[in-house]
Design brief:
TIM Barrel; globular
């Protein structure tokens, strides 16, 4: 049975750039190997930004080269501008994702460009892709689509207009990101539906945070209106340095459990996924990680959506420091 939902793991980028410690390169590679072994087939492995700004990402080209050796893996990286895209293409990524803020205040704080300037940046990156690497997928993620801690309310009309502008600029997919953890399920259904009505199949992933405990509910709301790709982070690592108080991506382990328990295949093995937490914690000793499923274990009689039974109902124990 093929996966009906794609879980796009963003921990090696979104998670690692949000913690103070820098994970050694060898540990990053071991963690990505463990995530791949668990069945994840799209991983955001880093971001192409100046090392002086994000020293955690200084080794991104080396990480990309290693990740490309993993069979069947889509290697994705974030880029903030054309220069980052040039470096990402040179390193051999399969997919580029760009943060384009729906909030003008967040856009200026995050990338020092207006929304209009970022649309033009996307247009230039698409032209670069078309010339040098037509196989590379270009995704725009609409940050702060559901609200902004700097600006406050972000009008839905602004989000829809920006999604249309990005589609016209040539982006293959335009996803919606709850960067600040302010979304609720009704809002998620409404905004994804409005965007899909305007740009159709260009509607991309849901990138949702669990800041106020609504992450999984919002993912389910997005699924209900046709979203099939979901960003998440192992152990719930992640946030945004330019969105005060925006903590916690959706926990990959919990998201996989929810979909598999609903009979929707993800292609991910939960036991191997929880085991990958050991590699994560080896590279970030003492860093708190989260997740209800790793703590509680699988439900009695649990079977995967494809009919497989787990080897054990009790999931592998993780290293000290895990928190729910």
């Amino acid at each position: 049975m093929q996966a009906q939902v794609l879980i796009s793991e963003v921990g090696p980028r979104d998670g690692l750039q949000s913690v103070k410690a820098t994970m050694p390169t060898a540990n990053k590679l071991a963690w990505i190997d463990a995530l791949h072994a668990a069945g994840l087939r799209e991983i955001e492995v880093g971001s192409f930004v100046p090392a002086r700004l994000l020293p955690q990402m200084a080794d991104v080209a080396e990480v990309v080269r290693h990740a490309r050796s993993l069979r069947g893996l889509t290697v994705m990286a974030l880029v903030p501008n054309l220069r980052g895209a040039q470096a990402a293409v040179a390193a051999g990524v399969h997919k580029i994702t760009l943060p384009v803020s729906a909030s003008e205040a967040h856009s200026l704080a995050n990338v020092r460009k207006t929304r209009a300037q970022m649309v033009d940046e996307v247009r230039q990156i698409v032209a670069l892709r078309n010339e040098l690497a037509p196989h590379v997928h270009v995704e725009a993620g609409l940050s702060t689509a559901f609200g902004c801690t700097l600006q406050g309310v972000v009008p839905e009309d602004d989000v829809v207009r920006l999604a249309v502008a990005l589609a016209e600029a040539g982006a293959d997919d335009i996803g919606l990101s709850d960067t600040t953890g302010m979304a609720n399920p009704a809002q998620v259904r409404r905004l994804f539906s409005r965007v899909r009505a305007e740009i159709g199949a260009h509607t991309g992933a849901a990138h949702l945070h669990n800041t106020r405990g609504l992450g999984l509910a919002n993912c389910l709301a997005a699924y209900d209106v046709g979203v099939r790709t979901f960003d998440s982070s192992q152990g719930g690592l992640g946030g945004c340095p330019y969105a005060p108080g925006a903590s916690g991506n959706v926990v990959t382990e919990d998201l996989v459990f929810m979909f598999e328990a609903m009979g929707l295949p993800t292609g991910v093995d939960l036991e191997k996924l929880v085991h990958a937490r050991t590699a994560l914690q080896a590279g970030l000793p003492g860093e708190p990680i989260y997740g209800m499923t790793p703590e509680a274990g699988l439900t009695k009689g649990f079977v995967y959506a494809d009919g497989r039974s787990p080897a054990h109902e009790r999931l592998p124990a993780t290293a000290a420091g895990a928190r729910t």
